Amino acid sequence: MTDLSRRAALRLAAAGSLAGLATPGLSPAWAQEWTPPGPVRLINPFAPGGSPDILARVMAPHMQGFLGQPMIVENRPGAGAAVGTRSVARAAADGTTVLLAPISSVIAPFMMRDPGYDLGEFKALTWLATTPFILVVRSGRWADVREFDRHLKANPGRLSGATGGSGTPHQLAAELYRGASGGDFTLVSYRGTAPALTDLRAGVVDFMFADMPAALGQIRQGGLQALAVCTPARVPALPDVPTMAETVAPGFEANSWVMWWVPSATPDPVARRLAAAAAHGLAQPDVRTRAAEVGFLLQGTDMAGAEAHKRAETEKWGALIRARGLRFEEG
After folding, report:
1. Fewest Cβ atoms nearer than 10 Å: which of 80, 104, 106, 284?
2. CA distance linking residue 66 with residue 281, whole number of Å
3. Global pTM?
């Protein structure tokens, strides 16, 4: 896959009406003063209530005040985030349509025959936040992650792991662990994280790599046990829970994330203004408080940092998907 495909190049060519906005010598003051020509639609490619939705809706009032136009969170779920993602690839590059890009937007082009977009059609504005993943089990079943890891390796094919669906980061985290541990297990695909965690508590499945906002409440209530987090360092919300890397899988890291992407033809001054709006939203006390409550790790990178993260994640998960021969399964 090229970084800028033929399809992306055609979209850039079609953006001639906006090209003058990005010409050399454009005044920095203009970039600061730019106001969207209408309401800004923030497209979330998942259903309401999930991790990206929580962050978007708490940030939106601050960002619309910053930009001087309403910011509308619009949910467009379907096909492992491909439906919402491709709708932004096809949108006008005028700053009024922004993708609340999850890791699934990177995964889909590798797992689907034709998701309707490729990654060269997007410009990354900022990496908003990481959603830590946690290895969770039914409370009391194993003493710690080392005991779980030993049991899994001693019983090849006997344990089952839940995922929130085909093509989800839960699935990829489990596949990454399969390679790191050398263990063998079965993955069971559910229609979302909530039913997967319900069956995990009931003992129908044995473990799950779950996103922290979905699992944290049940961990605190005692229904689930957190064995390890998948971040490079321990997380403030669960300071006593070790990392996978420090216990059973050196170098292991598998987390979800949320970014802001726009169509690649969006002029840089417009992109910078939108990125500044996101930074303004992330800096607000109520946003930081809510993020800490549900377990987000806020990032707030500049555009260069966002592009670097997008590129690194594309390479990492693309290599894993190709190596495992993974494919998105409808239904």
Report:
1. 284
2. 8
3. 0.85
Structure-block tokens of residue 222? 């005692």
CA–CA separation, 320 and 190 (whole Å): 21
Closest CA to 273 of 284, 254, 260: 260
**What does each C-alpha distance from 65 to 45, 49, 281, 287 come to in angstroms?**
24, 23, 10, 14
Taking residue 217's Cβ as centre, other Cβ atoms within 10 Å add up to 13
8 Å CB contact between 89 and 4: no
Q: What is the pLDDT of residues 232-253, one digit of tens each?
A: 999 999 999 999 999 999 999 9
Give yes or no for a contact between 133 and 212, defined as CB atoms under 8 angstroms apart.
yes
